[in-house]
Amino acid sequence: MIHLQQDEQLDDNREEFQLVFRHLQEQEVEEAIAKEIVNTVIKNWKEDEILSYEAVLEAVGDHIENKLKSFSRTERIQNKVIQFIGPTGVGKTTTIAKIAASLMLQESKKVAFITTDTYRIAAIDQLKTYARILDVPLEVAYSFEDFKKAIKKLNDYDVILVDTAGRNFRESKYVQSLKKMIDNGVDMDTYLVLALTAKPKDIQHTFDQFDSLSKKSIIFTKADETAQYGSLINIPFTRNIDIAFLTNGQDVPDDLIVCDAKMIRDLIIGDARE
User: Fold this and answer.
1) Residue 111 to residues 25, 173, 209, 221, Cα–Cα distance (Å)
2) At what angle do helices 31-44 and 53-69 cross, to 10 degrees?
C-alpha cells in the first residue's frame, strides 16, 4: 500500500518510472526530490522513445548530472585561509591532513595548520602527529587573539588550514563562536564537513544549524561506509551548494576524491545498472 501511494505521486505510473522512483528512494533521496526528478523525465519523454527501465534510469542520471553542474565549482582549494567546521566524529582532522598532503604533493604548496580545537584532549595531539609526518608548522589558538596572531605568523605560507572543535552543533554558543571566527576580517573560505553515514534528516538538520555561517562548499566523509548516497543530491538540490570532496577511507592522502556531478550521478544510479 505504501508503494502504491508513492507511485500515485508520479505523473505517469508505468512500471519503468515507478521502479526508478523506488530506486531513488532506496538511495535515500528525499521523496519530494525523487518525485521532481522522475516527473521531469516523464515530462520530457518522447512518444517514439523506447521505454525501458535502463532508458529511464539513464535519463534520470542525465537530469541529476545536469542540475548538479549548476552548483559545481571548477576550483576547489583556492583561498589562502581555509576553515573546516562540522559536528563531532565526522573526521575533520583526518580530512584536513588529506587535503594538506594533496596540496603539497600535487601542487607543491607550502601548507600550515592552525587548530582552535582545544576542547577535546586528543585533538591537538592528532593534528600534531599529522603536522610532524607532513613536516608542516602547527599553531594552537586558545583564543580569538591567538588565532589572529597565528594567521599573521603564518603569512608566508601558501595555504593555512584551520581545524575547529567538533562540538555539539545544537549548542548555539558553539555556532556563534565559529561565526565570530569567520567574521574576523580575514579573507577565509569555510568548508562544512559532514558524514555520509548519518541519516539524511540529521544531515539536513546539521546543515541548517550552521546556516548562519557563510560556507563555500561541503565535504562528505565516510563514503566507503555506506551504500546510500542520496544526501549527495539532497543537500545541493535543497540548499544550493556544491560538494567539493568525498573521502572514502583513512589513508592520507589517497582516500580523498575531488567530487563532480558525474561522480554523484554514478553513485546514485550505479547499483541499479547492475
Assistant:
1) 42, 30, 30, 22
2) 110
74 or 41: which leads in pLDDT: 41
The model carries a pTM of: 0.87
Q: What is the dihedral of CA 223, 225, 229, 231, to 10 degrees?
A: -80
For the chain, give the percent of residues with pLDDT over 70: 85
**Domains, the chain, ranges and CATH?**
2-69 (no CATH), 81-259 (3.40.50.300)
Beta strands in the chain (DSSP E): 81-85, 111-115, 138-140, 159-163, 188-195, 217-221, 243-247, 256-258
Tell me: the pLDDT tens digits for 169-212?
Answer: 566 666 666 666 666 667 788 899 999 999 999 999 989 888 77
Helices (H), 198-255: 200-209, 231-239
What does R_g of the chain's alpha carbons equal in angstroms? 21
One-letter amino acid of 153:
K
pLDDT band at 272 (very low <50, low <70, confident <90, very high): low
Grid coordinates belonging to 139 = 599553531
| Nearest Cα residue to 227 out of 26, 3, 7 | 26
Grid coordinates representing 177 are: 563562536
Question: At residue 179, what is the residue type?
Answer: K
Report in angstroms the alpha-carbon separations of 199 from 42, 113, 149: 29, 31, 39
Residues with Cβ within 8 Å of 223's Cβ and at least 6 positions away in sequence, in order, are: 196, 229, 246, 247, 248, 257, 267
